[in-house]
Design goal:
About 65% of the residues lie in helices and about 0% in strands. It has 5 helices and no strands. Helix 2 packs antiparallel against helix 3.
C-alpha cells in the first residue's frame, strides 16, 4: 500500500466519528418524526435523574434513551410501541403517563388521597380557628 493511501485511510478512520450522526443530540430529518420523538422524550422519565424527562437530562443513560427513541421512530415504530418497549425494559415508573392497571393504581390513588387529606386538614384548621 502506498504511503499516501495509508495516510488517507488513517485520516478517514480518525475523522469518521466526527461525521457520524449522534441521534441522541441531532434532530431527525423528518419534522413529523422529530416532533413524535421529542413528545415521547418529554413523557419518559430519566431513570438516573428520576424527576426529569430524558429530553432535559444530561445523564449518559438519558442520552442513550434519546438515541434509542429517535432510532426507533426513524425506523418507523409508533411512539406508543417505543413507550411500551421502554416500559417493559425499565418498568411502569419510567413513564410520566402510566397506564391505569392494578399494579399502577397507587400512582393514581396516592396523590388523590394526599389532596383529600390536605383539604380535610385545612378545613379542620379553619373550623377550629372559628370556634
Amino acid at each position: 500500500m502506498k504511503p499516501s493511501a495509508l495516510l488517507a485511510a488513517v485520516a478517514l478512520a480518525l475523522a469518521a466519528p466526527a461525521f457520524a450522526q449522534d441521534l441522541a443530540e441531532i434532530s431527525l430529518a423528518d419534522p413529523r418524526q422529530e416532533a413524535q420523538a421529542v413528545a415521547l422524550m418529554d413523557s419518559i422519565r430519566c431513570v438516573v435523574c428520576q424527576g426529569q424527562p430524558v429530553s432535559g437530562s444530561n445523564a449518559s443513560l438519558a442520552g442513550d434513551m434519546r438515541r434509542l427513541i429517535r432510532e426507533r421512530i426513524a425506523a418507523g415504530d409508533k411512539p406508543e410501541d417505543v413507550r411500551a418497549m421502554l416500559v417493559s425494559k425499565y418498568g411502569d415508573w419510567v413513564s410520566f403517563k402510566p397506564v391505569v392497571k392494578p399494579a399502577t393504581l397507587p400512582l393514581w390513588i396516592v396523590p388523590l388521597l394526599a389532596l383529600l387529606g390536605g383539604v380535610w386538614l385545612v378545613s379542620r384548621r379553619v373550623r377550629l380557628g372559628r370556634g
